[in-house]
Automatic annotation (TrEMBL):
Origin organism lineage: Bacteria, Pseudomonadati, Pseudomonadota, Alphaproteobacteria, Rhodobacterales
Enzyme class of the recorded protein, top EC level: oxidoreductase
UniProt name for this protein: L-threonate dehydrogenase
Task of the protein: Catalyzes oxidation of L-threonate to 2-oxo-tetronate. Can use either NAD(+) or NADP(+) as cosubstrate, with a preference for NAD(+).
Keywords, in A-Z order: Carbohydrate metabolism, NAD, NADP, Oxidoreductase
InterPro entries according to UniProt: 3-OH-isobutyrate_DH-rel_CS (IPR002204), 6-PGluconate_DH-like_C_sf (IPR008927), 6PGD_dom2 (IPR013328), 6PGDH_NADP-bd (IPR006115), HIBADH-like_NADP-bd (IPR029154), HIBADH-related (IPR015815), LtnD (IPR050006), NAD(P)-bd_dom_sf (IPR036291)
Active site: K175
UniProt record, GO biological process: organic acid catabolic process
Catalytic activity: L-threonate + NAD(+) = 2-dehydro-L-erythronate + NADH + H(+)
Length: 301
């Protein structure tokens, strides 16, 4: 059952894979593209169709979701040698799910429109677990025609699509605000858990109690669980927040808005990355702080 639309997903990382598998589960014919053999194999095992290249994916897809790491990778996948856009049919919908500076989102969407495509600026939030459940939130802006054509795809991968207007950039601006809060909250979680550990407190009890108190946040609940379990499998890596908080602080500088907490959090993530934790889960900033304090956290070898 194809629901009359074929989707392509470029980038099968934790979020892209979740979206691609959710599409397959919804009965939508889905192609997936990734440079890693293991990602393509895993997608095939879930009933998806690994694509050999971006050209093939674009030729066969009505809607293409882009889940690469940054704006440079998005441009390469779309417009570079062997990119998707020259091979796509006129009117194909491209959904940009990449966290990137608003100016880049606007420029890429404008290029897509100039090439005869429909574009939605739609960064996402919710983490790998929500992506796998088809329950992410999307901060999306673009023309009505694009949303209408992509409706079965958006329904399959998301719990909520926040429509932020017709103009590209609105989704990216909202994602900057989200990542500002997310990065600061992860840093605060790490600081709190290390302080608790330094006092000999039971981290599982701290995690349980704070979730019912005013100091809780989504990131404390989610990433604090990683610290308690000592599990730093990279669902979202430290280096992702080096990138994202870099976008946040650059945006703040460009607008003249003070961002002292974001700048401090960015410094912490940069330190953790320099200490060799860049590819571990972003909760590993707690490991970095714990080592500074001479405190042993679960999972630290």
């Amino acid at each position: 059952m194809s629901k009359g639309v074929t989707a392509g997903v470029i980038g099968l990382g934790s979020m892209g894979m979740g979206a691609a598998v959710s599409l397959v589960r919804a009965g939508i014919t889905t192609l997936g593209l990734d440079l890693r053999d293991e990602a393509r194999t895993a997608f095939a095992e879930q009933g998806g169709m690994p694509a050999p290249d971006a050209v093939t994916l674009a030729r066969l897809s009505d809607v293409v979701l882009v889940y690469v790491v940054n704006a440079a990778q998005a441009r390469e996948a779309l417009f570079g040698p062997g990119g998707a856009v020259p091979a796509a049919r006129r009117g194909t919908v491209f959904i940009l799910c990449v966290t990137m500076p608003p100016a880049d989102a606007i420029q890429i969407c404008d290029q897509l429109v100039a090439a005869g495509m429909l574009a939605i600026d739609a960064p996402v939030s919710g983490g790998a677990a929500k992506a796998a459940e088809g329950q992410i939130s999307m901060m999306a802006s673009g023309p009505e025609a694009a949303f209408r054509k992509a409706a079965p795809v958006l329904e399959a991968i998301s719990a909520t699509v926040f429509r932020l207007g017709d103009a590209p950039g609105a989704g990216a601006r909202m994602k900057v605000i989200n990542q500002m809060l997310a990065g600061v909250h992860i840093a605060a979680m790490a600081e709190a858990m290390v302080m608790a550990a330094a006092q000999g407190m039971d981290l599982a009890e701290v995690h349980r109690v704070i979730q019912s108190c005013a100091g809780n946040s989504w990131m404390f609940a989610n990433r604090g669980a990683h610290v308690v379990a000592g599990d730093y499998t990279p669902h979202s890596a430290v280096d992702i927040f080096v990138k994202d908080l870099g976008i946040v602080t650059e945006t703040a500088q460009g607008t003249g808005a003070p961002a002292p907490l974001s700048e401090t959090a960015l410094g912490l993530f940069r330190q953790a990355s320099a200490a060799g934790l860049g590819r571990r889960d972003d909760a590993a900033v707690a490991l970095h702080l714990a080592r500074q304090a001479g405190v042993k956290l679960p999972g630290d070898e």
